[in-house]
Design brief:
CATH architecture: 3-Layer(aba) Sandwich
Distance between the termini: 43 Å
Radius of gyration: 18 Å
CATH topology: Rossmann fold
Number of helices: 11
Number of domains: 1
Largest sheet: 8 strands, mixed
Strand content: 15-25%
CATH class: Alpha Beta
CATH superfamily: Alpha/Beta hydrolase fold, catalytic domain
Strand order of the largest sheet: 1-2-4-3-5-6-7-8
Helix content: 25-40%
Amino acid sequence: MRTRTRYLFLILLLFLGLNGYVRADNPNGSCNITSHEVALDGGILYYNMAGTTGPHILLLHGLFAQKEQWNSVLCLLSTAGYAAIAPDLPGYGQSVDFPLADYKLENQVERLRQFMGALGIATFDLAGSSMGGTIAALYGRRHPQQVRTLAFIGSPLGIVGWSPQIREAIYQGVNPFIPIAITEFDLEMRLLFANPPSIPESVKAALVKDYIERNRHYQQVWNIVNLYDTVLEDGPPIWIPTLVLWGTDDRIFSVEGADRLRYRFPRNKRVKLPAVGHLPLLENPEATTRIYLNFLSTQPGRRFWGR
């Protein structure tokens, strides 16, 4: 069943690609994404990688997502001279062997520490999308000596409350992240994207069917992750250089949250990307990567790693 779920999400990514949201390579066709796996205590973690030389960048996906969402960014970063890594977080995508307890964000941090240790990578740049951004921040808080820079590629969970659109849906008994009808799936797309992609009804129906069949599991994961809705408001400031990239048309978390992050991450650069929703890595990977590379190049002792 989980293999089928992964297949369905890859189909969805294919159709997003046809609409310009995802590309598996760069415009020059020179990108080579390779797939690998690492055995950890409790399960096997699968990851994609582009580029083999230069500084390492670790990219973390969001809730109910998977590593392939980073394909375009992976390629653009590798073209700029970085070695970019995008794992399926424990419990997501192909990395399905881990126990339910590993959905706790602190446990995700520990698994990622083990993962990077297994790869022999001592220091790296760390970026995340949505929940992945929150995990990145928690990693930086716990292991600051390993993290050169942090980046929120889109709004993170834990600094600002759910948008009025999300709240209204939940008040009506609908969780847009666990759609059990095509109309609910369409709502999810409208919330995630400033300009929602066109997806065939057959693909929508297949994905909704999976949400229905595995509804208890999705609800369990949602319940765990939703406990972290204020996690970035707590604790001391994190002094790692941080990029805050937030879509102006984000309908999951209001763009006003970008300014709140400046108190928690004092060494920050904030960029509000116009005409983009919650997933800038999908909706505008070129502008997203350009902003990220510029941020990396401005760090002390760093340069633009263009080839």
